[in-house]
Amino acid sequence: NKQYGFVNGPIYRGSTIIYNSVSDIENRNARYDYGTAGSPTIENLESAWTHLTGAAGTVLSPSGLGAIALALLTTTKSGDHLLMPDSAYRPSRNFCLNTLAKFGVETTYYNPLIGSDIEGLIKSNTSTIFLEAPGSQTFEVQDIPAIVSVAKKHNIKTILDNTWATPIFFQAHKHGIDLSLEAGTKYLSGHSDLLMGLISANQETWPDLRKMYSSMAMLPGPEDCFLALRGLRTMHLRLKEAERKGIEMAKWLKNRPEVLRVLHPAFPECPGHEYWKRDFTGSSGLFSIVLDPKFNKSNLANMLDHMSLFSMGFSWGGYESLIIPFDCTEYRTATEWNPGGLTLRLQIGLEDIEDLKCDLIEGFERLNQVIC
User: Fold this and answer.
1) Of 202, 230, 258, which residue is a domain's last?
2) Nearest alpha-carbon partner for 95 in 143, 128, 59
3) Can you name the residues that pair with 216 across neighbouring β-strands?
4) Which portions of this protein are annotated as coiled-coil regions (predicted)?
5) DSSP code of 311?
6) What is the DSSP string of 148-206?
7) Does some domain include residue 253?
8) Other Cβ atoms closer than 10 A to 318
9) How far apart are CA 146 and CA 123, in angstroms?
10) Are both 158 and 46 inside the same structural domain?
């Protein structure tokens, strides 16, 4: 009724909220007291995400990295100790190094496959265990229930970056996670046209998250929230298609002579595959491959510089297919990254899969031309 029959809600923009009386303004007697407290547009997205995740509440941020920062600031304070997987998204590591360290928070990096042995890394001041499943670029799947069990035993908060699976393929809070993060920039958006982060919290952690959020007013714009709400309606359909195409493409690549191995959680050879099979209900369209060791960077440039459909660019989850080279050796500290060849991360988009295969075939031909 409030929308006069329109299917989509209006976009509320604003900073100032008008009060009807002195009494109302003195007592902050209004649903929203200022623009930083939110709006119906923002609240609609928060409520929808809370329902999807089974959380006690959700807050939004202007980017996925903003969500990571807000979550870590919620669970850590000066003098605390944080455990972070060695496979984590590099900007997460940078936030620990460049920001948390300045406030006296110590970070220890751990093998993502450590499981319950993470208990050996816990100190008396450990406040938070950060998880990312699967790992950024390298796709190790963590034993989330085992780590959560250890965390609860020691009254430690857990934060999970759940962007790859989304709540559709992994229900973080049902597995005991306190704060679950999503870069809405990826699959929620689905069209590479917005930046957004979402943080959902369980009942115990929700008051602390909301308090930190309110103190920082780190909220996205209403237009982005509207686009995210629109993307939410089709996210499950796009994810299913991404899963189908991703697995088909990964199987095809596995049989290419140029490919040494495929790093995809749904494949038995992927580290932690057994945890993916046990805990997850699906996979997205993002995975990596390791090339035959005979190829070098010059070969790779000849391949990638002339792709037709696969573009080189960061992020993922949009319509377009992406491909980027990566190397984790320069920043990993707790584990050794030695894949045996050059590595590429692929985002399989919504283009025709036969066209994508043809693009890669032509790319592999260029890769081999330099070798000859």
Assistant:
1) 230
2) 128
3) none
4) none
5) B
6) HHHHHHTT-EEEEE-TTTHHHH--TGGGT-SEEEEETTTTTT-SS----EEEEE-TTTH
7) yes
8) 20
9) 18
10) yes
Residue 213: its pLDDT value, please? 96
212 and 70 Cβ atoms separated by less than 8 Å: yes
Q: Give the pair of three-digit tokens for residue 233.
A: 């309606």
Residues 178 and 47 grouped into a single domain: yes
Residues 6+ apart with CB under 8 A from 30: 17, 19, 24
- Predicted local confidence at residue 141, as pLDDT: 98
What per-residue confidence (pLDDT) applies to 371? 63
Amino acid sitting at position 204: E
Q: Output the pLDDT for position 31.
A: 86
Structure-block tokens of residue 208: 């602390």
pLDDT tens digits along 259-274:
999 999 999 999 999 9
Six-digit token string for 74: 């919620």
Q: How far apart are CA 304 and CA 306, in angstroms?
A: 5
CATH number at residue 223: 3.40.640.10
Position 372 scores a pLDDT of: 53
Nearest to 198 by CA among 174, 232, 175: 232
Q: Return the closest-CA partner of residue 360 out of 252, 243, 283, 239.
A: 252
Q: Is residue 17 part of a domain?
A: no
Strands in the chain per DSSP E: 57-61, 81-85, 106-110, 126-132, 157-161, 179-183, 197-201, 259-263, 286-291, 322-326, 343-347
User: Burial, 351: exposed, middle or buried (Cβ in 10 Å; 0-12, 13-18, 19+)?
Assistant: middle
pLDDT of residue 4: 84
Burial track 209-248 (b if 16+ CB lie within 10 A, e otherwise):
bbebbeeeebbbbbebbbbbbebbeebeebbebbbebbbe
Low-confidence stretches of the chain (pLDDT beneath 70): 1, 370-372
Angle of helix 64-75 relative to helix 90-98, nearest 10 degrees, comes to 50
pLDDT at 313: 96
Quick one: pLDDT at residue 163?
A: 98
